[in-house]
Amino acid sequence: MKMNNPENNRNNSMFKLNGVNYLIPFILVTTLFALWGFANDITNPMVAAFKNILLISNFESSLVQFAFYGGYCLMAIPAAIFIKKFTYKKGILVGLGLYCIGCILFIPAGNAMAFWAFLLAYFVMTCGLAFLETTSNPYILSMGPEETSTRRLNFAQAFNPIGSLTGMLIAKEFILARLDKATEAERTLMQTANPDALAAIQQSDLDTVSGPYLMLGCVVFIFFIIFAIAKLPKVVSPDKNSASSTAATFKRLINNHRYVWSVIAQTFYVGVQIMVWTFIIQYAEKELGMSKSTAQGYNMIAMGIFVTSRFVCTFLLKYIKPSILLLVLAIGGAFFTLCTIFIHGMTGLYCLIAISACMSLMFPTIYGIALKGLGDDAKLASAGLILAIGGGCLMPPLQGFLIDKAVWFEAFSSVRISFVLPLICFIVIAYFGYWVKKKEN
């Protein structure tokens, strides 16, 4: 006779609450995490691509990221208000709809050869991503008992970097590798010598950029149909204040020290993530003389380590409190960042890559800590944590400024000195983990 395994019962209970089984809805919503991870990392290389294609300045090409993260900043709070008034399912459908429209807008943008039109497409697309993230994260937290909510979110978030890796591969193989090989200097000469030939190259390159986004739009539309048909259970919160006004909810959240500290910690985490992954290439180029393509390979290794570490850390959460694991990993991240600053050569690069293992747990864990016990307020509270994604775009330019200007010590290159900023971020996150641990005790 087959014995019942208590461990299996505990795992199954992660997705059961008040007699409702959330396993199938959990699987469906988890696919969205990979979907927005794909969008994030197919877009990052486009900053350099647009600069070369359209012969624009570094500042102008960086507006791609400004438009991308601007959608998160503008739409996070409206998305939270929307799902508070309606349902998680409707929030997901709005997000997928805007995501799909933004992808389709790449076709007229490419035909018009207008950079502003691409920026508009990115903005609309990330307005949809803001809806998806603001909706999906608290929905995952609510799909089972509260004591397993952080573990559930970590597991769902583990599929985000899988989408990111896929996006990086698509950008490398189907966009960057297929662009015309003419250099920026050669294109500049063609502006006066043969403008018609340049226009033809630019049109071909922009079509190459637009193609994968159109295919992505088709995939997103399929997901829209699936979610429109799917029966997603409504989450009914036992919170007595669930019917209260938005203003009252904001007041409660502002007075909630744990939530406010979580938003601050999340801002620093997103900042350190973007800085580390952005400047691996610059570190490899300037410190080791690698080409961009070779350096990008190390960036993908870092992402692979990030994915693996996410699954390992999710398993460890069964035995270790989230706040304690967050504190340990933040200290580990600070240690590897110090090694990146003080150790030269390949060892320094390996330490920089190793930082990704320490970052893997942070976003969903901070998210879970922030929303724990908030009941229906979590719908609005998630907006602040999504706003933190937009705040992260402020820190990489500061690190870039340090790379340009930091020549204080002859013993250290400006690239290595610039990693003082990620170090500060890890110190803030470590303090947050310690503070939460102390409050729990």
Write down the overall mean pLDDT.
Answer: 83
Secondary-structure element order, as H and E?
A: HEEHHHHHHHHHHHHHHHHHHHHH
Strand order of the largest sheet: 1-2
CATH architecture of the largest domain: Up-down Bundle
**Helix proportion range:** over 70%
Q: Report the end-to-end length measured between terminal Cα atoms.
A: 44 Å
Q: Give me the secondary-structure category.
A: mainly alpha
* Domain module count: 2
| Count of helix runs | 22
Shape: globular
The third-level CATH topology of the largest domain is Growth Hormone, Chain: A
Low-confidence stretches at least 5 residues in length (pLDDT < 50)? Answer: 1-11, 237-243
Report Rg: 22 Å
Q: Into which percentage range does the β-strand content fall?
A: under 5%
Write the SSE topology.
Layout: H1 6-13, E1 16-17, E2 20-21, H2 23-43, H3 46-54, H4 58-61, H5 63-85, H6 88-104, H7 106-112, H8 115-141, H9 149-157, H10 160-175, H11 184-193, H12 195-229, H13 246-254, H14 257-288, H15 292-316, H16 322-342, H17 346-359, H18 362-371, H19 378-391, H20 395-405, H21 414-418, H22 420-440
Antiparallel strand pairs: 1-2
Short description:
This protein has 441 residues and is an all-alpha fold.
Question: Can you put this structure into words, describing what you see?
Answer:
This protein has 441 residues and is an all-alpha fold. The protein has 22 helices and 2 strands. It has a two-stranded antiparallel sheet. Helix 15 (292-316) runs parallel beside helix 17 (346-359) and helix 16 (322-342) runs antiparallel to helix 22. The longest helix is centred in the middle third of the chain and has 35 residues, at 195-229. The two termini are 44 Å apart. 46% of the residues are buried. The model is unreliable at 1-11 and 237-243 (pLDDT under 50).
